[in-house]
Amino acid sequence: MIKRKIFGPVLLGLGTILLSSQVFAQSDVIEQRIKLMKANGAASKALKAAVAEKDYATIELKAKDIAGNMDKVDNLFPKGSMSDKSRALPAIWDKWDEFKKDEAAVKKAATELADAAAKKDATLVDAKFKSVGGACGSCHKAFRAEKK
């Protein structure tokens, strides 16, 4: 009898702890995702200025930052990780293969931009910079909600 009186509350407590830890983990991954996307946004702004100034060192560095961030994206989008802070649409998980293709396109475009900057080829840099913007925009159009 005493075991039953203790077992119920203990089980309820453990369930609450497990559920709370999942909620906190999801919140943490969303915060990390937002931080990464803001870093990419800042890198994009820096890229725009660097392209205008033909600052190839900065272009190469910022393009590599964006490409490197794409390696982290998968872990920052666990299935269903949505909140009022996140602009991620459910389409991400419904169309995961398309999302992955967009992620790969951003990485490829950013890598090609970094390579063009290393060669100091202004015409190629301009073209690849536009490719990065197009790849990012394609993903955002399909998988990101409008700003609230």
Order of helices and strands: HHHHH
Q: Please state the CA-atom Rg, rounded to the nearest Å.
A: 21 Å
Domain count: the total is: 1
As for the CATH topology, it is Four Helix Bundle (Hemerythrin (Met), subunit A)
Strand content: under 5%
Q: At CATH's second level, what is the architecture? A: Up-down Bundle
Distance between the termini: 55 Å
Number of strands: 0
Roughly how much helix do the residues carry, as a percent range?
over 70%
| Poorly predicted runs of 5 or more residues | 10-25
SS field, number of helical segments: 5
The CATH C-level class name: Mainly Alpha
Broad shape: elongated
Largest sheet: none
Overview of the structural elements:
With 148 residues, this protein is an all-alpha fold. It has a single domain (2-143), classed as Cytochrome c/b562 (Four Helix Bundle (Hemerythrin (Met), subunit A), Up-down Bundle), CATH 1.20.120. It has helices at 2-53, 56-70, 91-94, 96-119, 122-143.
Keywords:
148 residues; mainly alpha; Four Helix Bundle (Hemerythrin (Met), subunit A); 5 helices; elongated
Summarize the structure.
With 148 residues, the chain is mostly helical.
Helix-strand layout with pairing:
Layout: H1 2-53, H2 56-70, H3 91-94, H4 96-119, H5 122-143
Helix pairs in contact: 1-2, 1-5, 2-4, 4-5
